[in-house]
Automatic annotation (TrEMBL):
Belongs to the major facilitator superfamily. Folate-biopterin transporter (TC 2.A.71) family. It is found in: Membrane. InterPro entries: BT1 (IPR039309), MFS_trans_sf (IPR036259). Its main location: membrane. This is Glyceraldehyde-3-phosphate dehydrogenase. It comes from Phytophthora nicotianae. GO terms for cellular component: membrane.
Amino acid sequence: MPNLMSKEHLGLLFEYATVGLVYGLLPETIYPFMQQYLNCSGSQVAAAKQLVVLPWSFKVFYGILSDCRPIFGYRRRPYMLIGWTICIIMLLVMAIMPIGKPYYTVASDRDVAVADYTDEIRARINYDAPSEGAKYVIIMFFAAFGYVMADVCADSITVELAQREPIDKRGKTQSCIYTVRTVMVIFGELLTGFFFNGEEYGGDFDFSLSFPQLMIIVTVLSLPVLPMTWYFIKEEKVERADFKEYISGFWNLLCCRAVYQVIAYNFFANIFADFTYTASTPVASYMVDVTPINSTVSDILSNLLFMFGIMITSKWGLHWNWRWMIVCTAATVIVADCAVAMIVVWDIFRNQWFWLGPPIVVQLPYGVGWIISTFVTVELAQLGNEAAVYGLITTVTNVAAPFATSLTLLVDGPFNITNDRVKEDDHSVRMDITYTIIIMYAAMVFAWVFLFLLPKQKEDAQRILREGGKSKILGGVTVAYLTFAIIWSILTNVLAIFDIAAAKQLVILPWSFKVFYGILSDCRPIFGYRRRPYMLIGWTICIAMLLIMAIMPIGKPYYTVASDRDVAVADYTDEIRARINYDAPSEGAKYVIIMLFAACGYVLSDVCADSITCELAQQEPIDKRGKTQSAIYVVRTALVIFGELLTGFCFNGEDYGGDFNFSLSFPQLMIIVTVLSLPVLPMTWYFIHEEKSEPANFRQYINDFWDLMCSRAVYQVIAYNFFAGIFNTITYTASSPVASYMVDVTPINSTVSDILSNLLFMAGIMITSKWGLHWNWRWMILATGAVVIVVDCAVAMMVVWDVFRNQWFWLGPPIVVQLPYGVGWIISTYVVVELAQVGNEAAVYGLITTVSNVAQPFATSLTLLMDGPFDITNDRVKEDDHSVRMDITYTIIIMYSCMAFSWVFLYWLPKQKEETQELLRKGGHSKLIGGITVFYLVFAIIWSIMTNIMAIFDSTSCLIIAGGTGC
């Protein structure tokens, strides 16, 4: 029997103790902090609870990494240290972040019915508070990402120890470590309950800690886990596993009947067993007035009884029938919970401890059932894949929980149970809550249908493992539904948590990652094909996202009466303010997130198409090289024009600030785009010729790619594209407000302008293809850039200073400059073909275009940084006074100065194709500059993502780095 108190294993107990502390504390803060302090909606709170524990759904991937890739010969301890370092950093971030005001700035307002709100109460309520919750949940998510990595490695050691136990004692090690973890979960809950019970959290203590202060305490308590992990866990050095052989063995295990049957039970049974209802926290908050301290005491007592259930099973229940015990424990839970819920909802009897008491008692049998369901995992693990198998089985259970929450949100959504409705506490909301409760318990009973998939006991599990046979079809089906569940859970729960406006850059951000798509496509052919299968995958993702947007309900516009759009903010009457839909901006985020995933799909397809284009272009004679690229970009631009026509014509009604008496809704337009996109699937497979190829040796591929990165021709062209691209694409934040409020550009005219611009852009490409294949690249970019600056600047100044204002004067000259701009743009892309080599076309083409794409959001970040201090808001532009005109002028001058400064970097761009090839042959190599190139590109990507995400959140958009004026 392993001795967990020995020096070799004491650190393992400390691992589980610290996991218990953080795992118990972080989710426990959601009720007092998000529900009570920030007053987030029930669906937001439900989604937040799942997002905080979502990393548990990825344990299998941590396990595979830990099993296969030892660090300095160790498979577990280094990953534990990495995980805890990530977790502690996230705790520190939360400890230093400023915290906003609570929703109820005066605590007594919490007890006032919504119908009784006075103007004074409404004025002092912080309606922006619910939007603050998302940033904390995201950081908690990354903290969980860290400690789950450590937990997976600890689990694998636990499995190894458990397998050394005799069969009649097997289960005691698991019971012991889960008892320790549960004790520390209780301690974490005690910390939360005691320190989060002040008035601002809906409690009755006259003191409390702020959220950052509690995070400091947790950080300090977590720090000792680092030395304990390294010095008090014994681990032997091992050789690195052969990944292909490891995955093959893991796949064979997954195809075993015992494994896919247990996975199916854990997944489908837990989906229904974990069903809940979104009204749970609002009922506790408003119908029963549960204080944070009592909620925490309830959780503590629940965990104590849960722990006793584990201990009872360890002493007497190691040979109980697993199926019958799960039925008995679940039945007890349902009867007790249902009775209490109905009595409370219908106001037969309401009391905090009546609401909290019975659910505490049922934790004893629930603990018995839970530990029994984990015993089967030890029987399935094999030598060498302990982390992956333990992670897989527990991942299935964990991914079922957020998937159940997703279905809960989907099922409960039509009942529209909001905090305000629960506070009203009328017959209609009680009926709606009752329906959701009945649905929940019906789902829990239905979970028993899947019990036949669970072995009865350890011996039964081993017998099925030996005699159950294998099925690759069912193994594949298992992988498919688990993958779908993970994607569904992430998408729906992330969308539920965000109540924020979104930024344009996030929609096009996937273009900044083309190089990674290219490496994937170059190295890992599917069924022997490197391009077409990835194209199909990409378009399938994109079309699925379009369908989601087509079926999602759309809310009311910001201006419910279109004429209000033309009224100055200072002239708003109470009637106008009452009918404006101030919640409309918060609807934007969900569409931006889905568009982001759609872009991830079609960019994958585009990268593969680019690589084929590169191969074809390299087959052209040198004097004609560039015609293929010109042709495909002409086609793409023509269809861009068609897309703009659709948008401009269908989105020009009064709701969109236009003057048509008709328009389509956003979902209707998405249906049209979906139908028009569907033919790309058969056309991709049947009308693109591609030869089969073998998978590349990844290490050799990366070495060759690195050598190419270190060649002067490549890092010099990258430097030009990046630094010139940054300054050339800097803009000014007042552009859209000027068009909207100073010039009154209608959507249809804006679209006509975009169409004409793209026509002239396309003409520029065609002119270059016919006459400009041998023009000097540097001089043409300089000449076209100068024309753009002169024409654009003249128009902008006349409009801003009201010398002459007219839609077509504003839109016309910028249309004309698209002709030389098209010439300059296509010339800058020709260099890519000269740099690509056989076998890495997708990666090189993706790399160079990634550089250009990542420069754009980086330029946007700098635009926000430079323009932020001028504070040019929509309201200021509508006022149109001297001060705002001066501020806009300054930002315009900054923009054109940056565009001119971009010419400084032209000496890095070769003059023509021949010079590029000569530079590639004779330019030499430098690993130092290659490394610097990788560094600044990685920095730019991270900067772009972080600053654009900061600009989304109300609480961080005020930061200078995100383009604000300072918080």
